[in-house]
Amino acid sequence: MNIMLRNILTMIVSAVSITFSAGILAETTTQQYHPKGKMPYKCTVHWRIFIFSAILAWTGLFSTPQLDAEIYKWVDEKGVIHYGNILPADPVNVKIVSREYQHDEAADQERVKADQKALDALTEEIKTEEQQASVEKQKKLTEAKQDQPPMFASECFSPSYSIQQGRGVNEAIIPRDFIEGEYQNLQKLFQSLEGNWEGNALVLVCEGTQDKVRKVVDNYSVKSEGKMRSTGQFVLKTALYSQKKKATHHENLRLYLGPKKLTSEPNISIADIELISVSSDELVYVEKGQKRSGSEASLMRETVDTIRKTGEASFSLERILYLNGRLITINTWHLESK
Question: CATH number, domain at 211?
Answer without folding.
Answer: 2.40.128.20
